[in-house]
């Protein structure tokens, strides 16, 4: 099976190579891995023995970051190697000073896994959520290097729980420990004979809570918002923006900030909001911010802090690619709105059940709820409290995970 998987990885790489002729993201994926082992050899002498933390992309790295911070806090002499699969994580965090080293993960072939571990010689590996790279799993197991999955979540429709998933289950069984988000994940793993499982929650709660408790002000948001109510729409795509444009045409007393998931789409986003007084963040001044109704954030790294100023938050992706991070907004205690494709995201399911978040299919649905908030301030405040309390109640996963890991490795 490993041979078939390795062949699949090779074919995937060939596909990315072809796509790199047309796609910047694919091009970065290929270019970032050129000379990778020479770069690794120039950094690692065999004496560092770092803790290796792997994330698929930026979202998973946000889950890894509190763990890295905790390790550094408790063990300042330990080196941390952070790796990424996707350019959207690596390119944004390649200069991050929290880990000691940041690299792309070489593709998951047997030779790559063996060479990577020979050079790096990690003392431990931590995979975030569901980065199942089976050649790396086998090599780690063969070398008796402990490795863990953190903030993991499992669902009954995954291949591990199908009749044809037995080989994959055997590979998962080599894992030193799973720290899962919920009881359902634990029960699913237990049902296939994997017992080294603990429910510790999701480290993203720790991350967003830390951000929310940092003192800061964003002058440009204050200049834009003034005394109006503010909707902040984060990580949006075309369907989200079309809905928001329709909604905004029927609102009074509101301003809107839109932060598209890909800032390269800024011209497309501007076209969607044609007819409104709109300004780009990179072209903003105190005067045009004051006069604008819509602010388009065409830069990265500020969205999680902008949510602090929102009265209503809309989270993109749930009409198209999958819901993006809702906790960055929920921590500030505001009602959340998103599209209908949210059921794979545990925190969204929970907040919908608690009535702190509202899945919608149309602008009319969102408008109706906003009107209810305007007519009933107590309803609005209750919804805000639900979101803030939910985040507060789930902080602490990072401490639990780090305690268990280091207990097991003593």
Account of the 3D structure:
The protein is of the alpha/beta class and 410 residues long. Helices cover 47% and strands 15% of the residues. The protein has 20 helices and 14 strands. The relative contact order is 0.09. The model has no long low-confidence stretch (mean pLDDT 93).
Keyphrases for this structure?
single chain, 410 residues, alpha/beta, Rossmann fold, 7-stranded parallel β-sheet, 47% helix, globular
CATH class of the largest domain: Alpha Beta
Gyration radius from CA atoms, angstroms: 22 Å
Distance between the termini: 34 Å
Per DSSP E runs of 2 or more residues, the count of β-strands stands at 14
Which strands sit side by side, in order, in the main sheet?
A: 3-2-1-4-5-6-7
CATH superfamily of the largest domain: 3-Deoxy-D-manno-octulosonic-acid transferase, N-terminal domain
Mean pLDDT: 93
Q: What is the CATH architecture annotation of the largest domain?
A: 3-Layer(aba) Sandwich
Low-confidence stretches: none
Indicate the overall shape.
globular
Estimate what percentage of residues fall within beta strands. Answer: 15-25%
Share of helix, binned: 40-55%
Output the number of helix runs: 20
CATH topology of the largest domain: Rossmann fold
Please state the structural category: alpha/beta
What's the story with the biggest beta sheet?
7 strands, parallel
How many domains?
2
């Amino acid at each position: 099976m490993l041979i078939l998987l390795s062949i699949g990885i090779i074919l995937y790489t060939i596909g990315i190579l072809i796509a790199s002729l047309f796609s910047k993201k694919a091009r970065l994926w290929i270019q970032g891995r050129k000379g990778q082992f020479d770069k690794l050899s120039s950094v690692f002498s065999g004496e560092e023995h770092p803790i290796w933390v792997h994330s698929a992309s930026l979202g998973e790295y946000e889950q890894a970051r509190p763990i890295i911070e905790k390790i550094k806090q408790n063990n300042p002499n330990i080196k941390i190697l952070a790796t990424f699969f996707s350019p959207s994580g690596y390119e944004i965090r390649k200069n991050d000073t929290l880990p000691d080293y940041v690299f792309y993960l070489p593709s998951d072939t047997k030779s790559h896994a063996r060479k990577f571990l020979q050079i790096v010689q990690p003392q431990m590996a931590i995979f975030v959520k569901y980065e199942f790279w089976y050649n790396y799993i086998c090599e780690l197991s063969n070398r008796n290097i402990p490795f863990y999955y953190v903030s993991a979540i499992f669902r009954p429709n995954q291949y591990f729980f199908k009749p044809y998933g037995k080989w994959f289950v055997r590979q998962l069984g080599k894992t030193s420990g799973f720290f899962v988000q919920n009881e359902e994940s634990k029960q699913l793993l237990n049902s296939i004979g994997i017992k080294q499982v603990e429910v510790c929650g999701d480290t993203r709660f720790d991350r967003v809570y830390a951000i929310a408790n940092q003192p800061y002000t964003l002058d440009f948001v204050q200049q834009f918002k003034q005394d109006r109510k503010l909707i902040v729409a984060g990580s949006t795509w075309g369907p989200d923006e079309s809905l928001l444009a329709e909604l905004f045409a029927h609102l009074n007393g509101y301003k809107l900030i839109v932060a598209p998931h890909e800032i390269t789409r800024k011209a497309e986003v501007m076209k969607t909001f044609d007819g409104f007084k709109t300004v780009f963040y990179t072209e903003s001044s105190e005067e045009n911010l004051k006069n604008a109704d819509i602010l388009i954030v065409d830069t990265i790294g500020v969205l999680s802090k902008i949510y602090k100023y929102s009265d209503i938050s809309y989270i993109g992706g749930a009409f198209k690619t999958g819901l993006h991070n809702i906790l960055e907004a929920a921590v500030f205690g505001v009602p959340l709105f998103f599209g209908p494709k949210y059921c794979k995201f545990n925190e969204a399911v929970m907040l919908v059940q608690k009535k702190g978040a509202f899945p919608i299919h149309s602008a009319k649905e969102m408008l109706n709820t906003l009107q209810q908030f305007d007519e009933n301030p107590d309803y609005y405040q209750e919804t805000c409290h639900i979101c803030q309390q939910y985040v507060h109640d789930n902080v602490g996963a990072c401490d639990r995970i780090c305690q268990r890991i280091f207990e097991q490795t003593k």
